[in-house]
Every structure is written in structure tokens, then in C-alpha cells.
Amino acid sequence: MRVKPGSKVSLKKYDANDTGPYASQQQAEKPLLKLLDELARLQNLLYAQNKHGLLIILQGMDTSGKDGTIRHVMSSVSPLGVEVKAFKVPTEEELAHDFLWRVHKAVPRHGFIGIFNRSHYEDVLVVRVHDLAPRKVWKTRYDQINSFERILTKNGVIILKFFLHISKSEQRERLKQRLADPTRYWKFSLSDVEERQYWSIYRKAYEDALSKCSTKWAPWHIVPANQKWYRNLVVAETIVKTLQELKMEYPPPSVDLSKVVIE
Ligand code: ADP
Questions:
Q1: What is the pTM of this model?
Q2: In what side-by-side order are the strands of the sheet with 157-165?
Q3: Which residues, in sequence order, are CB contacts of 169 under 8 Å at separation 6+?
Q4: Contact between 46 and 54 (Cβ < 8 Å)
Q5: Distance 51 CA to ligand 1 centre (A)
Q6: CA of 86 to the centre of ligand 1 (A)
Q7: Of 89, 124, 166, which is best to mutate to test ligand 1, by the most ligand atoms within 8 angstroms of its C-beta?
Q8: Residue 97 pLDDT more than 90?
Q9: Would you say the CB of residue 123 lies under 6 angstroms from ligand 1?
Q10: 227-255 residue pLDDT tens
């Protein structure tokens, strides 16, 4: 599911319904709980060590489950060490700066997990699909993004990027569910229905972003996301593996503990 740097992504080849080795949600329950426990342990270490920040970028079509992924995968970690940033339509002030200005400010500090719900990738997705900037402007952004992410990773930030891959028919079901449930009306927006008409243009824009910006230092992961439970498992597993590879250790005491007397 990790996109090989330099490879050309065709989303047709990825099954949004895939559930890996699991035949049912029930089978995946225990492994997911184990992963969430391990994630809590690793986050504590990350915080204690205060050496790396972990930046998790979530992108996907409307209703692909960005909010739900955050809610589930982060359910076991301490809120003290997590920062979530949702990127909306840029403000006038943001638009008066380079497109990475607002993003750089939101990068997690060392010790923290930062989650981007949407990100600088919108500047080569919605901007491209709706001609919000000329082609010659957004065309150069892929290289700029790669350089920017390289700078971050050279400065102690680990980057994981997830594309939550749902099918067009699954999106229809999810939009219908929003219409049928008063507790979800607030999530329903006519613009989601309008954006749906651009599905194949978005898909092409996503394929380009995934192909051009999956790098050794900041890889993209394509997550089958029609089944929410499998999506959560894949994201949790990728984060856990990445943090485990850091081989973090708790810092030694800052004072000679044998001399401490607590009366
Ligand atoms: P969400 O759909 O993420 O839950 P909203 O309904 O507020 O939240 O949508 C945020 C909107 O902001 C999306 O339509 C997204 O395309 C748009 N957006 C984010 N970044 C940019 C950007 N750089 N330029 C233009 N639009 C953007």
C-alpha cells in the first residue's frame, strides 16, 4: 500500500473494498486493540523523548473518512500530545502568502503527533480541479512540496501520508446515509454532491499527487477505505510500525536519583 517512489499510480488497480487477510470486522477487532495499545505506548515514548514530531497527512474524496480515522486511530493516545489541524478554504491572509506558509506553521513540534485533515495537497487537488490557480502555477508545486517535506524530515519530523481510497458507489451510500439520519444532517453539504461530478478529474489529480510526491522521506500510502474497520487497522499499523522503527528509548533521569530523598 506504500507507493514506491517514482512509480506511476493507477487507482483502478487498487481495490477500495480490500480487507487484507481479514474476512470480517470481528476477526480484526483484537489486532486493532493491540495496535492501539502499542500506539499509546509509543506516543508516550515520543513525547518523553522529545526528539521527533510525527506528521500524519490524511487526504481523500469527500466522505472518505478522514474525521473517523482520526477519532478511531487516536482513541487510545493522550490528547496532550496530539494536535489536529483541518485545512479549509484559505483566508485572504493565507492567500497573500506562499501556499506552504499556513502549513509550515501547523507542523507538529518535537514530541507531538500532528494530524492534518486535508493539507498542502489541496493546492494540487481542488486548486487544479477548479482552476483556482493557473496550470503553470500548480504544476511547479509537486517539486516544491517534495522539497518542503524533505526539509521537515531533515529536521526531526517523520511524515506519513494516507490517501483514503473509497469507491464512487461507496460515496453514494455514505451521502445517502447522511440524508437519512438527522444526527448526520450537519455533515451533509450540497457542495459534496457537486464535487461528486468531478470524481474522475479528482481521481486523475490524486493519481498525479500520489505518483509525483511519494518519496523515500515522505511516502504515500493508499488505504482501502470502503470498510472503515480495515481502514483504521491499516492506518494504525503503519503508524505503529513507523514509530517502532525509531527504536526510541526513555531519556535517562536528569538528576542523580540515588541522592533524591522524598520525606
Ligand atoms: P471537510 O470537508 O474537510 O470536512 P469543509 O467542508 O469545511 O471540511 O471543507 C473544507 C474545504 O476547504 C474543502 O472543500 C477543501 O477543498 C477546501 N480547501 C482546503 N484547502 C484549500 C486550498 N488550499 N484551496 C482551496 N480550497 C481549499
A1: 0.97
A2: 82-86, 113-117, 53-60, 157-165, 220-224
A3: none
A4: yes
A5: 31
A6: 8
A7: 89
A8: yes
A9: yes
A10: 999 999 999 999 999 999 999 999 999 99
What is the rounded average pLDDT of the residues 23-29? 97
Mean pLDDT of 174-199: 92
What is the b/e burial string over 196-205, where b = at least 16 CB atoms within 10 angstroms of the residue's CB? Answer: beeeeebbeb
Substitution candidate for ligand 1 out of 98, 116, 122, 191 with most atoms within 8 A of CB: 122
- Give the position, in ligand 1's atom list, of the atom nearest the Cα of 195: 14
Residue 41 CB burial class (10 angstroms; 0-12, 13-18, ≥19): middle
First to last CA, the chain: 56
What is d(CA 44, CA 81) in angstroms, rounded to the nearest whole number? 8
The 3-state secondary structure of the chain reads CECCCCCCCCHHHCCCCCCCCCCCHHHHHHHHHHHHHHHHHHHHHHHHHCCCEEEEEEEECCCCCHHHHHHHHCCCCCHHHEEEEECCCCCHHHHCCCCCHHHHHCCCCCCCEEEEECCHHHHHCHHHHCCCCCHHHHHCHHHHHHHHHHHHHHCCEEEEEEEEECCHHHHHHHHHHHHHCHHHHHHCCHHHHHHHCCHHHHHHHHHHHHHHCCCCCCCEEEEECCCHHHHHHHHHHHHHHHHHHCCCCCCCCCCCHHHCCCC
Q: Which three cell numbers stand for residue 58?
A: 490524511
